[in-house]
Amino acid sequence: MQEIVTLAQDPAVWIALVTLIVMEVVLGIDNLIFISILTNKLPPENREKARRIGIGLALIMRLGLLGTVAWIVQLTQPVFELFGHGFSWKDLILIGGGLFLVWKATKEIHHNVDPVDHKEDMVGGAAIQSFGAAIGQILLLDLVFSVDSIITAVGMTPHLPVMVVAVVFAVAVMLLAATPLANFIERNPTIVMLALAFLLMIGTTLIAEGMGLHVPKGYIYAAMAFSALVEVLNMVARNRRQRAKH
Questions:
Q1: Which residue among 1, 27, 187, 218 is least enclosed by CB atoms within 10 Å?
Q2: From the CA atom positions of the chain, what is the Rg in Å?
């Protein structure tokens, strides 16, 4: 308790907290896009439950990893070397998660571009076979994004209470934004292709990071923001043309 009071009186700690919250919220966007696309393929009555469970698991995973900060730091230590580059467990997790994202996004893009079954809807391609399958895929990506999130937190501040507050705040924002984002994607099917392209880019970036090629996050999010702006302009143009016809 005394440590928390001392930290609360330090302006530098508050600056670190605000910065970390922003970083955690931004990092959570990738996770949220994946959850939204995946849960939209479930029956309507199961979507909200799946989102809450998926985001709840993300919170549990992040807090659990924070409890093993010393172990998390060790994940950045090389365990073997290949082609002159040392690979750590973090690298392997990022590469594995990136490959999964690339595979998943490519598969969903294929279903949207060339559906093999007319029963498939435009929002999300092939139907998820079961509620458990959706949760399993969300859990896998939660692990990848959680490791990345916690290692970022550890690199920004040495204070565990600050990390916990930032993580809880970021997951709360994800929880509040999940349903509106999923509903927006469902109402605007063309957004699905853009979101899948984002996931494809994020997956490629994770693989590059795991291979030791640092890609500044600012470039990634600037490209995503620009693409989203173009899509918004397209949506406005379509709506105005439709109103003009009537």
A1: 1
A2: 20
- Please say whether the beta carbons of 211 and 91 come within 8 A: yes
Give the closest residue to 148 by CA, choosing from 198, 94, 207. Answer: 94
What is the per-residue pLDDT across 30-46, written as a single tens digit (0 to 9) for each?
Answer: 788 888 888 888 888 88
CB 68 within 8 A of CB 163: no
Question: Rounded to whole angstroms, how far apart are CA atoms 187 and 184?
Answer: 5
CA dist 109 → 37, 207, 235 (Å): 12, 19, 20
DSSP single-letter state for residue 128: P
What phi-psi label fits residue 24: left (phi over 0), alpha (psi between -120 and 50 degrees) or beta? alpha
Q: What tens digit of pLDDT does each residue of 208-245 get?
A: 888 888 877 777 778 878 888 888 888 888 888 888 87
Q: Which has more confidence, 8 or 15?
A: 15
Residue-wise burial string across 125-149, b where 16 or more C-beta atoms lie within 10 A, e elsewhere: bbebeebeebbebbeebbbbbbbbb
